[in-house]
Structure formats: C-alpha cells, structure tokens
Amino acid sequence: TPLHPPDGEGGGMRGYFAHYLDAASGVGCILLRAEHEPHNNFEIQNLNLFSLSLILIPFVFSFLAFAMKGKNSGTVALMSSVITMLLSLFAAARFQNHPDAFLISESWIKNLGINFSISVDSLNILLILLTGIVTPFIILSSRRNEYKNENSFYSLLLLMQSALFGVFLAKDAFLFYVFYEIALIPIYFIC
User: Fold this and answer.
1) Which residue has the higher pLDDT, 20 or 182?
2) DSSP 109-150
3) Rounded to an integer, what is the distance from CA 182 to the centroid of its chain?
C-alpha cells in the first residue's frame, strides 16, 4: 500500500518519510500512489471536473427555477442548493487527501495570458463550505414569504450562488473579476 514503504527500506517513520521524499523528488506522490492503486488516478481525473460542477449546477438549476411557476421554483432551488451543499461537503472531505486534484486550468484569452483556472485550496474551501451550507437555509427561510415573482427570486439566488462559487474558486485575477461582477447582478435585483 502507498502508506507503507516498500520492503527493504527499513521500518518506522524514517523509512516512511524516506519513501515519500524519494517519490517527491521524482514525479510526485500522486503518480506514485496511482502506480500502487490504479483506481486512484482515475479518481483524481474525475475530481478535476468537480470544481466546475460547483459552478454549473446552480447555474443550470437557475434556468430551471426560472421556468417553473409558484412554489415549484422554490423546490427546484432547494434541490439545487442541497446538491451543492453535499458537493461542498464532499470537497472538504476529499481535499485533505488530494489537494491538487480539483484544479482546472485552460487557456482562455491567449493573447492576454488569461486562463480559466479554478481550484479548491486551503483558504477557499472554508468559503465554499460557507456558501454551500448557508444557501439551503436561505432558501428554506424564504419559502415562508410570498413573492410577486417567485421564479425570478429563486433563479437569482441560484445565479448568485453560482457566481460566488466562481469567485471563491477562481485562480486567475481576470476570472475572479468576471465572476465578481456576475455575482453583483443578482444581488442588485434581490436587494
């Protein structure tokens, strides 16, 4: 197993750290773990799209909530927010074992050196958890009130959540600015 050094390298903590220091100087611990556990590499590749799903799920559900009428839009919004809450809890649990597994970095505007780069790190995981956990409670508490355009209200809440996830996940300054400006639009109309 990757938690124990190979036979013949000595025992105890010294052998354990020597095993990982040797691996880190070469191709990295993630590749070493993938060599010993073939399912681990597949798992890491699937986690790359995880960051993007935190942004896309509330975005897609916001259009569904807008298309619904009455209390159905609140139900769709609540379902989306519970899904993203579970995903954010999953991200927090998996982040300890695979801190670099949530990274997506693609060239966006090549001439200006702007990338679409999002990732989970030790600072933004707290903000992702806060957004993921608080949003279902916001939607639950708002369901007691009557709104003139409920579908618009819940759609804007989900758009705000999607943009906030983008703000917290962004690793590129321009991408951060774009998501920040997108987040301000639904906040303006909600307030």
Assistant:
1) 182
2) EGGGTEEEEE---TTHHHHHHHHHHHHHHHHHHHTTS--TTH
3) 17
